[in-house]
Write a structure and sequence with these properties.
- The structure is a single chain.
- Helix content is about 15%, strand content about 20%.
- By secondary structure, it is an alpha+beta fold.
- The protein has a domain of about 190 residues: Roll (3-methyladenine DNA Glycosylase, Chain A).
- Strands 1, 2, 3, 4, 5, 6, 7 and 8 form an 8-stranded antiparallel sheet that branches.
- A hairpin with a 3-residue loop joins strand 3 and strand 4.
- It starts with 10 loop residues before the first helix and ends in an 18-residue tail after the last helix.
- Belongs to the DNA glycosylase MPG family.
- Binds MBD1. Binds SSBP1.
- One of its GO terms (molecular function) is DNA binding.
- It catalyses: Hydrolysis of alkylated DNA, releasing 3-methyladenine, 3-methylguanine, 7-methylguanine and 7-methyladenine.
């Protein structure tokens, strides 16, 4: 039986500790690329086309969903819908198409390897469903969610944008050089830091409860369909010995929003042939 995890800190306390700037002040709307609709007209997500507002609680996934072993949770995330209620009123929605599992103390590629617990990674030791947000390269963020197991968490790598693409595109443009080309829908969330930019995931989201938070949560996919899931080695962990080759990355076969396809893994699992003659995945437009 797993050791009891720390109690969740209040959101207000965490934001104070991290000197989090209020979301309304962080939202950037200048130097936008492309001739897209202005913020006043980008209201496609105020009420989701997928779930009437009264159905939010029924569709939302809570503690029971997150309370499972790390690998199981990483696979279960595939096909679920991550929702971010933005400060402009838009519900930014994306279907999870790629994840990675980090198993805690035994996993040499994990931030909690060897049971190491720090102020930065404490969310990994909190109750299942706790959000763990950490910076990479000093300027980008990655979003993880804790699971069962001491120090275990799932990295959310890629989403298929479903709703609010205009707002996502503006948020991504604010972090890119002026005059850069307009991003296609499939490029908005096809990587962990891109996902955080597109959904305006902030550092102060760290240690929040994905099962109860009012600004970000997870829902069942109303379509109820996913597809074949590929198991492959994780990205960027090549220096961690045997853990570099363990198949702890999971992604939806043939999906254009996956960050990196692993043809060798697909072939080993007998999935490559299933792509032949398969129709292209249709991305939802805003």
């Amino acid at each position: 039986m797993m050791t009891r995890k720390r109690k969740l800190l209040s959101n207000a306390k965490v934001c104070d500790q991290l000197n989090c700037v209020p979301e309304q002040l962080q939202h950037r709307t200048t130097h936008l690329e492309g001739g897209h609709r202005d913020e006043g007209k980008d209201q496609e997500g105020i009420r989701s086309q997928y779930f009437p507002i009264n159905d939010e609680n029924r569709a939302r996934l809570r503690f029971d969903f997150f309370n499972q072993p790390c690998v199981d949770l990483a696979k279960a995330f595939i096909g679920k819908v991550l929702v971010r209620r933005h400060s402009n009123g838009t519900e930014l929605r994306g279907r999870v198409v790629e994840t990675e599992a980090y198993l805690g103390g035994e996993d040499k590629a994990s931030h909690s390897a060897g049971g190491k617990r720090t102020e930065r990674n404490v969310a990994m030791f909190m109750k299942p469903g706790t959000i763990y947000v950490y910076p990479i390269y000093g300027i980008y963020l990655c979003m993880n969610v804790s699971s069962q197991g001491e120090g275990a968490a799932v990295l959310l790598r890629s989403l298929e944008p479903l709703n609010g693409q205009d707002t996502m595109r503006r948020l991504r443009a604010a972090r890119r050089r002026e005059g850069a080309r307009v991003l296609k829908d499939k490029e908005l969330c096809n990587g962990p830091s891109k996902l955080c930019q597109a959904l305006d995931v902030q550092r102060c989201f760290d240690r929040r409860d994905l099962g109860t938070d009012t600004e970000v949560w997870l829902e069942r996919d109303p379509s109820g369909s996913t597809g074949e899931v590929v198991s492959a080695p994780r990205i960027g962990v090549e220096s961690h010995g045997e853990w570099a080759t363990k198949p702890l990355r999971f992604y939806l076969l043939g999906h254009p929003c996956v960050s990196i396809m692993d043809r060798q893994a697909e072939s080993k699992q007998g999935l490559a042939a299933k792509l032949e003659g398969q129709p292209a995945t249709i991305l939802h437009s805003s």
